[in-house]
Amino acid sequence: MxxxxxxxxxxxxxxxxxxxxxxxxxxxxxxxxxIPVLLYHQIVPTATQDTQTSVANxxxxxxxxxxxxxxxxxxxxxxxxxxxxATAPPKPILLTFDDATPDFVTNxxxxxxxxxxxxxxxxFVVTGWIGGGYSMTKSQLDTLVTDHPNISIxxxxxxxxxNTWNSMTQSAASTEIATANTYIKGVTGKDPILFAYPYGxxxxxxxxxAQANGIQYSFKVGYPNNGDHxxxxxxxxxxxxxxxxxxxxxxxxxAPESGxxxxxxxxxxxxxxxYESGGATLTPVTGKVFNGNADGxxxxxxxxxxxxxxxxxxxxxIGLVNGKTYTVTVSVYVDPDVTVPSGAQxxxxxxxxxxxxxxxxxxxxxxxxxxxxxxxxxxxxxxxxVQSNEAGxxxxxxxxxxxxxxxxxxxxxxHESFDSGKGSAxxxxxxxxxxVTGKVFNGNADGxxxxxSNRSNNWDAADFKYSAIGLKDxxTYTVTVSVYVDDDVTVPSGAQxxxxxxxxxxxxxxxxxxxxAALxxxxxxTVDTSKDSTxxVQSNEEGxxxxxxxxxxxxxxxxxxxxxxxxxxxxxxxxxxxxxxxVSSADLDGSRLELLKLHxxxxxxxxxxxxxxLYDANKQFTPGAAxxxxxxxLAEGLQMHGHVLVWHQQSPDWLNxxxxxxxxxxxxxxxxxxxxxxVMEHFGNKVxxxxxxxxxMNDNPSNPTNWKAALRQAPWKAAIGDDYVEQAxxxxxxxxxxxxxxxxxxxxxxxxxxxxxxxxxIYSMVKDINDKYAQTHPGKLLIDGVGMQGxxxxxxxxxxxxxxxxxFISLGVEVSITELDISAGSNSQxxxxxxxxxxxLYAQLFDLFKSNASHxxxxxxxxxNDASSWRAANSPLLFDKDLQAKPAxxxxxxxxxxxxxxxxxxxxxxxxxxxxxxxxxxxxxxxVWSGAPSIPINRFQMAWQGASGVAKALWDxxxxxxxxxxxxxxxxxxxxxxxxxxSVEVFLDENNEKTSFYQPDDGQYRVNFDNETSFNPTSIAxxxxxxxxxxxxxxxxxxxxxxxxxxxxxxxxxxxxxxxxDGKDGAxxxxxxxxxxxxxxxxxxxxxxxxxxxGKATDPNSGGxxxxxxxxxxxxxxxxVTIKPVVNNEGGRVTGKVSAENLKNALEQAxxxxxxxxxxxxxxxxxxxxxxxxxxxxxxxxxxxxxFVLSIETENATVEVPSxxxxxxxxxxxxxxxRIAKASTDDLDAATREQIGNRPILxxxxxxxxxxxxxxxxxxxxxxxxxxxxxxEELSNPDSIVVWYIDGNGNATAIPNGRYDTATGTVVFQxxxxxxxxxxxxxxxxxxxxxxxxxxQAIEAMAARDVIKGISANSYSPSxxxxxxxxxxxxxxxxxxxxxxxxxxxFSDVPQTAYxxxxxxxxxxxxxxxxxxxxxxxxxxxxxxxxxxxxTARALKAAGKQVEAAGTLDAYPDAASISDYAKDxxxxxxxxxxxxxxNGKIAPNDPLTRAEAxxxxxxxxxxxx
Length: 1505
Known about the structure:
It catalyses: Endohydrolysis of (1->4)-beta-D-xylosidic linkages in xylans. With 1505 residues, the chain is α/β, with parallel strands linked by helices.
């Protein structure tokens, strides 16, 4: 998982932590006044993660605080007031920001400082993250301190380690706090006085360490305060509303957010539609004025003894519509004389799923506000409830006001008034963009505007990049732009303002310029990123000289509605299979019906045809609701599938049970047959197929060939027996036999069918039943089809689906995919990465389905869009809550294209070592374990992060041994399911084949804290031993696992994982693993890590074996010498140490290459959760004493380090590290981020200890190769792939030598200094290249690297002659030549102010230019072709470029005209292919054109060093 995403998940989970106050003793009572503290993380243009706040919302928050008189404090002011009793200003508040991310500088600080007065804030800095990509750079931090004294820099630890601070010793905490203090004081000159616990985690040791290191106050996440070193903070998340913040800080209720009011109840006229839940009494009252209830009318909720004694509001009575999004705001008050229990809270919930929308602590005598945006899902909920938690179950309260607004169809995504600068506008062509004020005109009331001048082309204009303003592909927007021309401007006839999309140049709107008059350009449009990337406000050709103002740009997104332009899915697969969807009555009207009909041609009733929906309480058949759905579906031109006849759920008990006991077989069988006939004959041939039996099979049966033993313990089985499935199909077949004209197929339907054991059980059942039926009905099937439900997740293995599909096809039945969805994300949030991963799996599946289309009848999605899905929180479908297509739709429409364009990130596999040794299995940690490296068990598969620990592994010639040390909060084995108990598990794949299913060598071993064992499969129990020892709530487990299929040996690799299950109250609340995050390890060995057997060697004295500590090894294979260092992964910092001995051994084995250098490979294997890779090298080896190159290979990049790398650096340490880390684009401007996109961006640094040191050595260039898979577009023009150097201020500079190497599939470049480097795509062309097609590629490649430039944005002037000085400047730039910096005498006709002066100094020092004999250079004279050849040959030699030996010029008829001084240079360049002649001649005296110069530069750029 990448670092920012991991931080997002971890911090999100931390926000949910509730730390019991009884764990620690408070050190001091918080002083008065009670100053509220707000916690923010990232402030970004568009918030997509819970840790982010949008710029727009942050500005609203700050304006609210400013408008309502709040005084923001510095850290010093906060301590002075709380600790020292200083006088507090009016309404004091502390704003805090965690992690020092770059957006704080670019987005938050400007908003803080645009308020009056300027706002103060605290930035909690993780010192070890500064300059690492996720946090800001050191220069940004320095600028923050020097230029923004309103920002207090405080301590947030060095490394922000996860699940550490709640178990840390005082010594370790003190070291980390003190280290960070020292760093911060070095930046600010002041000792930090505030500390924020990483992830809000702490214990008494940590609190004591903070106090001992001068920290005055320490902060957690959430409230209440619990002493000076457990102070609370209100956590602002993506969906936190201004009303919530107002309620937290006791501020006035803000005006309701924009949106259509659908329900507003003040209780001035009674209870309204509110009614009692439980035993509550609801009484309308008056005169109860409180914040949010100015009129005094309220609803008193009393007589409360349960948390659900409350007030309910039915969706149907409010008028809430399924799938639509609303914001609900409720004001609540508790009388001042009420005793409020500790922890008592008001809850706003959806019923019946009991989804918590909002909660807040009851405070006697104070009002609170509950508010949240939510999307209605009538499948799971039917009402809103205002209640309490369990602690508040007896608290009576008032509801003062209930307001529900519907989310507007038009949502503002971008609004720029230019009152704070240019915003996201960028110049096009040669235009000047200037922000002005006082320019009031229609549509621009505030007078702030953007003046667009210096216009000589129609494209000299203002651009707005889609990515910068947040426009998304396939979403529909309305853009409105106000434009004005000064009254003294002469407007040519026909001159018009244009609003266009670039680069299809689609015209959205146009209007005539009128001097002194405003005009408005407005149009609804749908974004198509395959064609366009930018909005441009420009002119037509007639208006190209007209300067104009842009007063206001407003872009609103059209929310909801069907995208009619999309290609219907059913049309794509019209010759393959039917496309279906699950429907309810809500889907058969309006836009939902429109979407259904557009993409589908068959429907399945989601619930209406299930048995319990077809009978009333009197056991009467009442199919009215089902009839309405079936008839409507058929009337709309779709076909219908019947779901379901026999199921263990959603069936009336009386069919198979009486008084809790099974009916006798005869009665139950008669009920089964009668039910099936009644239903089938009622619907007749309105359906094309029926799910006769649904979900009869257990998950992952241990013996799948014995399908009867694998049957679920269902009520029908209990009453009828193992043959109930067969009996159900016989009853259905009997109905069809009675109606031979009906063409209806009979299906068995089940889920988790990608599990190979379950698939085998289903296969065995269908085969046995059909074979038996064929004995009396030759050539006929009883079961016509198998339904694969397809409820998958993004970790589902397509190969498992393929194996199951092929297995079912082999039965000779038809197959349907019946309930397809793919869960991804959580809390109805789906990141771009997860969205693309979901789309990729959909693409893989539909590619599979299409290749087997002749056997598949239909593919049915289980829901129209995310909001109406039964898995709504996991966003599993093709269309989002607003009915807009997601990447999943693209994956379904064109699987091949989607997979080509969205290569998934390869999973990182953790690797560890098992050392040689044999422990005693008794639960006691023997000394032999001390030599085994720790294996952290800290990857969590569930939202809650509970028990964790470490493991170690040993091995001998018969067994694998695993030790667990588990840290838990309580021990529980209350569940009957072993996997839900507090326990540990070992997963083992002896042959490490990483199959998506279990083979005979695979197994899962489980031991709970009481040493009770369970196994999967059960056959692996033989020879297994275990022992446990409990200490408080922590425990140790030792296990011995006999090897079954392998003879273990040194360097053998096993598939391996370990897991900790955390049980609580009879259920599993947490799962922690070493490698697997999918939860599929019980059936899929491909998710395991790799365990290498090491540390065994022969003892020459005894002939036995001894333990050898692993130090890495040297391998010489096929002449390639490779050092494989021992790798250590601590918190994502992966380190491999190359010892001096290993390097010496490698050099002794390596042969010198033709250049005299030895090549040594240092191989660092890919590691899970790696944030950076470091290779520690002996310092002395890099001083140039030997001649070699180290090729450091990591997943991020390969770095070729020369042996003289440190020849100009003084380092006293024995070891230096080369660090290769993935960096972030967060602190870059929008345009740069867009061009980098999702391409690699790396931070390269040299580290001594934990300190990054500067490295820059012009005499020791380092070669970097970054793995990269270009897009199809990039492959067609690989020269567009460039490398950028990103400086400390986020500025990007092209590296001229950077290029894509098709042979290795990497982007390669050389550098002489370490910094941040990014891969980008730059396409630059000019409009005047049509007459020089032979030079076009060269010109564009060099322009992409900023080696050459045009004379204007669209003109290169290829035929113009180039000057001597200009060509020298281009040569030096293209070859990246550097001088010594020493003063060199310059030619008399070259002024020091000349733009080419620095390049000419370098060329002069390197002997490339020598002048004309009179100490002149004639820089402005045109350069001849032969002079170009001389200078180029000298420059190539200075650059060390490989060129061929001198050749012949005989092929050129004018060779004799070459001057003697130029002949050798010409011959060399001709032989090397740099010069090819001109119209068959060498033309030495012709002046060189700009086009020819570009070609020469391009050819030397292509030469190898």
